[in-house]
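Training component of the fellowship. As part of building independent skills, the fellow (R.M.) carried out the full modelling exercise for a liganded target. The chosen ligand was pyridoxal-5'-phosphate. The inputs are recorded below so that the supervisory panel can assess the work.
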Amino acid sequence: MINNTMKNYGNNRSVIRDLFEFGNQRKAVVGADNVFDFSLGNPNVPAPAKVNETISELLDSRNDIYLHGYTSAQGDAACREAVVNDLNKRFGTAFRKENLYMTCGAAASLKIVLTALYTPGDEVVVFTPYFPEYRVFIETTGAYVRECACDPDTFQIDFEALESAVNFQTKSVIVNSPNNPSGVVYTEESIQRLGAFLQERAEAYGHPIYLITDEPYRELVYDDIKVPFVTKYYTDTIVCYSYSKSLALPGERIGYVLVPDDVTDSTDVYAAVCGAGRALGYVCAPSLMQHVIEKCTGLVSDLDEYKEKRDLIYNALTDMGFTCIHPDGAFYLFVKSPVKDAGAFSEKAKEFDLLLVPADSFGTPGYVRIAYCVATDMIRRSLPAFEKLAAFYNK
Ligand code: PLP
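Fellow's submitted model of the complex:
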């Protein structure tokens, strides 16, 4: 016998993966240069040079077998110490290494935290648009996903919608800012108001409402935009972080969960995080990467390169008449479909070898996502295809 839920997850690949696979097949037919694949959030701006240098140095200088060995289940002490020291320096916090649990990226961080917190019947509020895998991670704990639409003009939090979404069953709220797929950064005012609202509701219900921040894009912001560090605005905040995007290391699977001391029942929550890591088989994040992170905290890929791509594609597409949300962070452009059915728009785009992800599975029908973390030259070369697509709808 097989677990049918898992069979279905396995058989129903995400729409992003489907497009990516389609792109690979198409490249074999028309040539790689003629397919404009904006499907995957795979960073193309490399890690800062120090990351690769550190990997080489570690391999050259440490000939002990334990470079590749198991670390403590919750992560190597020196790595955790380096990470909290960096956070404390940047955000004026006072975290200890005992607050940190190293993981295989944000996906593992989220799955661990959700497993640690939820029991069947609990509810979790997610703001639309949201990373589609949240639904898989949440529903497999037995909890219920309650979608809360953001303001349709700004994609900031809509507090009226939030008031109706949060109820006695609400165990937590997930926030992802800078946001995948909208590129929006929630303002300080929004985060302050969110914290005050959750505090009020938690007191009224007599149980904590944890705010889970999913932060793989925390450092990827442009111009003078600041990303509020959420633990400073709401005590019951648990952070899920990943180096996949900030250090362009998505395949290396490294990130962490941070459970600050001030969180309600912090010791128990941390113990449950360790327990969930164990139950899921996620103990001991990749050892080599933990040693790299210990030496590379605080570094970020070149933001000027991302900003150049952001400006190029945003300006070109808005000039062509597409309605786009101005992305202050991450590396996605969220574009309103000129027709109601974004799936049909994406199919039409495919005819011009433009691979754009319809955002229905992000909880926001009527939009497509463009991942502009690709070669700047590819963005330039794709513009005539976008012109043809625009012309088709303007005719
Ligand atoms: N959360 C968001 C919002 C993401 O965009 C991603 C990846 O694209 C993840 C989580 C998963 O990140 P990781 O690759 O570090 O597991």
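The panel noted the following from the submitted structure. DSSP finds 13 helices and 13 strands in the chain. The longest strand covers residues 123-128.
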